Every structure is written in C-alpha cells, then in structure tokens.
Amino acid sequence: MRSLTSWSDLDDAVWQACLRRALDHRQSREWTDAARGKALALLFMNPSLRTRASMELAAQHLGAAPVVLTPGQGTWGLAWDDAPMTEAAAEHVREAVPVLGSYADALGVRTFASLTDYEADHADAALKAVVDASPVPVVNLESARWHPCQALADAAALTETLGDPRGKKLVLSWAPHPKALPQAVPNSALLMAARLGMEVVVARPEGFGLASDVMDLAHDAARLAGGSVTESSDQALAFDGAHAVYAKAWGADLVYDDPDREAEVRAQHTDWRVTYDLMRRTDRGHFMHCLPVRRGVVADAEVLEDERAIHLLQAEYRLHAQKAILEWVWDLLD
Question: Are residues 91 and 235 both part of a single domain?
C-alpha cells in the first residue's frame, strides 16, 4: 500500500518520477480516465483554498470521484486520544477513518500542528493516527511537520523556471507574521531544495532555527545531490547572488513553552519583510511563497507583482503535482 506522508520516507526514484510527471501534466493539461472507478476521500481538519481545490480537481482530471469532509462542519467532530469521549467530539478517528477507507481508494488528510503539544507535533501524531487506522493509502495534505504536496509543486516550479536547479542558490527566508505558524512548509521547502542539489541558505533571526533533525535530513539530502545547506541570521547578506528566494513565516519552538514571549520576540523582527531592495541583491532572483501571503507583512506588493515572482506558478503546480501523486499512489505511472 503506497502512502505519501513525507518525501524523506521514499526513495529518490519515486520523487524523480513524480516530479517528471508533474512537469508533463502542466505541458499536456489533459483529462484522462486513468483512475476511473476510484474514489478519493479528503479529510480537512484545517482551512484550505489551494489544497482543497487542487486535490478535488486532480482526482477529477484522472477520472476519480472526490468527496470532501470537514469534521465538525456537517460531520461529527473527531476524537483522537484514548480519553473518555465526554466532550463535543462524537466519533473517534479509529472508527471514522476505517469507514471512509471502506468507501474510498485513498484518503487525503490535512492536520496542522497544534503549537501547544510539542511531543505530539514532533511525532506527527495526528497524521500517524490516520495512517495507522486507514485500510487504504493516505496522502498528507499538510501535517504538523510536512507538506509533501507543496514540496513537489515547488520543485516543479523551480525546475521549469531555472532549468536544472543543481548548483543554483535558494534562500529560505523567515518572514514576519502576526501569528506563530507551523514549520511544515519551511521543513518541506528546505528538503525539496536540498534534494534538487541547490545551495540552500536558511535565513532566520536568532531563535527561529528549524528543528535539528530536519536540518540533519537536509544536510544528508544535499550531500547526496551535490548541494549544500547553511544558515544565516543576516538576511541581506543571505540574499546576495540568490537565484530564488522562498519567503515563509514560522514560529519559534518557544511557542510551546511561552507563547506570549514567543509573540514578543517575533514582533521584534518585522524588518525581515521581503522588499524590492532586498530582491535587488539577488541574481535576478525569483520570489516564491506557498500562499496565502500577507502583503506588506511577509513581502511588499512590489515584490509580489514583479515579473520574476513565481508564487502563482507554484500554486498552479499544486494541481499537476497532486495528479502525479495520485497516479503514484494508485500505481498508474508509466
């Protein structure tokens, strides 16, 4: 049974096959009957625009039938742990997921980080609960730690834009935000660029480093692909000569122990917004963001509207990437 929880769990051959297929899908834009007779159940614990729309349409493009459920909104709220179910949740994930699996040929699930329970988030406990209970393949639509669908779309957008990304410089630039955000996207973007053999610089203020085990995975991936991974707390210096700048906000681990203090520290770094002057330090660099993006907070409108910004291309590739992922999950790749 083929599930996609994180690309780090899969061989490079799978990654490369899905990347090639995503690029092919953008070129052909064809609808097929390859998955006719299959059903895809999508379980969203958190809000979504691109992921929901692109995954529904990806299934339909392949001839499959999608159904979307949001627990607590038209369906029962779900319980996750072993405590007696005395609160609002009326159904347990251990019943709900097997039932959905009996109807569908794969499940897609989105379960954001809680940012309150470090151990559960670090273990990706909510995603793991779904995978363990599911009788059919599971596709991670963003969990506490990873966003593999976004990563494949990003890789395809970079490959189309830069050609061979190997040896090109990508800056993963921490961005200010009024809320502490999970690290799933920056984790995935880091590993994606490292796997492409890029020279990756993680630019972030002191105290906002990504998890050490994620950094270790990125170093290993870069070494195998002929790239590199470094860190910098000097944003302007990091931008020098970059071919791509991926801006993304994320909270510091301090949020788990002292969220008020984390908010105070985060508020001290509003000057990390991506400006046109910063982008001028790059080598005609392309601006990237997973969306949604807060204009004037994460990046200036001038940056977002520049012809070298590719955040909309990234978003378009979500459709093509997820078609490729479903084809792999259902063993439909040539």
Answer: no
Instruction: Count the helices and strands in the chain (H runs, E runs).
Output: 14, 11
Q: How many Cβ atoms are within 10 Å of 283's Cβ, its own excluded?
A: 12
**Are the C-beta atoms of residues 138 and 107 closer than 8 Å to each other?**
yes
> Which of 152, 141, 144 lies closest to 52, judged by CA?
141
Two structure tokens written together for 84: 């007696």
> Are 168 and 51 within one domain?
no
Distances 44 to 5, 51, 142, 213 between C-alpha atoms, Å: 15, 10, 10, 27
Q: How does residue 77 score in pLDDT terms, banded at 50, 70 and 90?
A: confident
Kindly give, in sequence order, each residue whose CB lies less than 8 Å from that of residue 225, ignoring residues fewer than 6 positions away. Answer: 166, 194, 195, 196, 197
Indicate the pairing of strand 91-92 with strand 106-110.
unpaired
Contact, 229 vs 203, CB < 8 A? no
Whether the Cβ atoms of residue 113 and residue 182 lie closer than 8 Å to each other = yes
Confidence band of 116 (pLDDT split at 50, 70, 90): very high
Residue 323: which of 12, 13, 35, 10 has the closest Cα?
A: 35
Domain count, the chain: 2
Residue ranges making up the domain that contains 34? 7-146+318-329
Whether this model's pTM surpasses 0.70? yes
Q: Are residues 116 and 166 in the same domain?
A: no
How far is it, in rounded angstroms, from Cα 98 to Cα 41? 11
CATH code, 272: 3.40.50.1370
- What is the predicted pLDDT for the residue at 76? 82
- What contacts 24+ positions apart, CB below 8 Å, involve 87-96? 93/129, 93/130, 93/133, 94/129, 94/133, 96/71
Mean confidence (pLDDT) of the chain: 96
Contacts of 79 (CB under 8 A, 6+ apart): 85, 87, 89, 91, 92, 93
Q: Please check whether residues 49 and 182 belong to one and the same domain.
A: no
User: 143-182 pLDDT, tens per residue?
Assistant: 999 999 999 999 999 999 999 999 999 999 999 999 999 9
